[in-house]
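Q: what does this look like with alpha-D-glucopyranose bound?
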Amino acid sequence: MSQAIDPEPPEYLPRSRIDRVERLLAELTLADKIGQMTQATMPEQVEAAERERLLSLVREGKIGSFLNVADRELRNELQSAAMEGRGIPLLFGRDVIHGFRTIFPIPLAQAASFDPGLARAAAGVAAHEASEIGIDWTFAPMVDVTREPRWGRVAEGYGEDPLVASRFGAAVVRGFQGAGPGAPGSVAACAKHYVAYGAAEAGKEYNTTWVPERLLRDLYLPPFRACVDAGVMTVMCGFNDLNGVPMSAHRWALRDVLKGELGFSGFVVSDWTSLREMICHGNCADERDVAFASARAGVDMEMVSTAYAQHLAELVAFGKVSLAEVDDAVRRILTVKHQLGLFESPYTKVRAVSVALAKGHLDLAREVARASLVLLKNDSHCLPLRADHRHVALVGPLADDPHNPLGTWSFDGDRRASVTLLAALRERLGSGARVEHYPGVPDARSTDVSGFDAALAGVKQADVAIVVLGEDANISGECRSRAYLDLPGAQSALLERLASAGTPLVLVVMAGRPLTLDRELAHAQAVLYAWHPGTMGGPAIADVLFGDVPPSGKLPISFPRTVGQVPIYYNYKNTGRPPKGTERGVPRGTPLDPVDMVASYLDVEVTPQFPFGFGLSYTTFAYSDVRVSAKRVRLSERFEVSAKVTNVGERAGIEVVQLYLRDRVGSVTRPVRELKGFERISLEPGESRVVTFPLGADDLAFSGPDLSVGAEPGWFDVYVGGDSRAEASDAFELVPD
Ligand code: GLC
């Protein structure tokens, strides 16, 4: 059903006029303009005929951008065709999500560091390496908040919390875009997938999203606002149908909210063939309808499909789409090209010395991986391992694999640079120690158990067993939704078999999502969650296992006990009947026996296996003196929450201090906790530090019954601690001015 055609297109936000763009815009024909709104993809192995076809389209000005050109010479050849043709440089995009040649941990792992500064540095390295071969624009950061571990793309975002996703999204935008648009070694960033793509029903990829506007505004929109405020140059709209309207035709979300309320002045690119897919959605009858709906909605550039190329001129000629709307799209695109300096320097020069895989890049990848590792269990101080271990049994195919630990979206990563855990352990323990590797299973999804015996025999002889289990990279990422969250294949059975040896056993999990580990936890003395840790994951894991650095990661997403609990998240609503503790079903033989009639299950505890923000250290931190700077805080006042953190253990440690608030009463129900601040600190044994979080009414604001945004007077509980169950607390009253 096409949307009503307004005679007058809406007034667009006043934009910074770049004279050159305006002059150029005035010279362009409609065909030229539509060419700028068209992005083509370059096939990996492009046939000569296809190459010639694309080159001639470029010369005629019918293509304004490419994605997936990963070769400097081809890029410059296409660019010269554009400059000799209509004289407007092409824009080259690529999915540089968490690294280019040097692959950093997946974004979900980076979020576990709770250190946006590290993510910013990693993005800067990725931009530096990618720009070297002529990539001007990356389709990242993905800032889709999600509560869905079944969804494969949970790997690609920053977890369940809007503050974490906002801080990491903004940091990564700044990392990619460097000192400013067009700065040497920088690329344009792209906040995606606008909006609420992570709310896919049942975690099924590309699925419907039903999101009440209040939830949209308070949970899914904030990271996009943060990216816009950080100056993100592009935004990608998602595949999802949001409340009945596919995002590629969502005029309210794109024009009114993103470009209007949020003041986004860059351009919107569609996701792959999401425009054409609206026919399948049943929102458009044909590609002409698609072009109409998307142009009116504010999609500025069409990726891969060709509805604009085929139908936009006719729609303008018949007055269905205004020239003003086309000009606004082209103005945005030309402005980005201009800001990137492509008019002055359209070609990519060969650098005297390649920066790819520079030592500093690999060192940073190791540092980011170290900070992302989350210690979930450590019975009787099994970790850190003693340096004098002379015989280590290392089990699992992922332990000697240069590919899968790189995770999803790592196709440009150089596998030759990967350092596996096996290589790292052998390097670290030296020739005097034995580090024997036993795959146990052929690969992470295999059900072949023929390798169990050899692995068990090896574990029996060793001082310690390090068992690496999890997901291969190809069951993580786009279109990789899973209905079960168990360890795939025979891995769980392998672990159970190995536990029978009685050798101290450390489980290292490599995965692109939370897995359900209820059974496995019993078989390991220690569990380290490594996600997909990237090129330098091996050395980073070894560094933490042997205590060179303490584990410091915290969970950016709740871990369910069973997939039946999903969605499960920390900032839930209390309901009228909150569970009291660990309700566990009803006694047998008493069919009418009253149960605790509370919000719980009969067959599993309501709490997660591991809560948001959780992660152990090799030491212990004590929290005290949680203080609010005033017991009564006026709406217009700034105030602070401080807490004293002490390392009461014997080893140095790194803690992510977390501040949560609870708004006790609101005009709409409020979450039982909301993360309002976090900070990583290092403390020596016995050392204390007071951590202070500055706050204001904007940190307490939410969308009320009429969706107006603001903080409401009343009492707030304050919690500061090492995870979302933090108990150390205080309270304050917010009062009108
Ligand atoms: C994919 C993804 C998107 C990516 C784009 C280009 O389908 O959804 O995140 O940037 O296509 O590869």
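The first strand starts at residue 38 and ends at 41. The radius of gyration is 27 Å.
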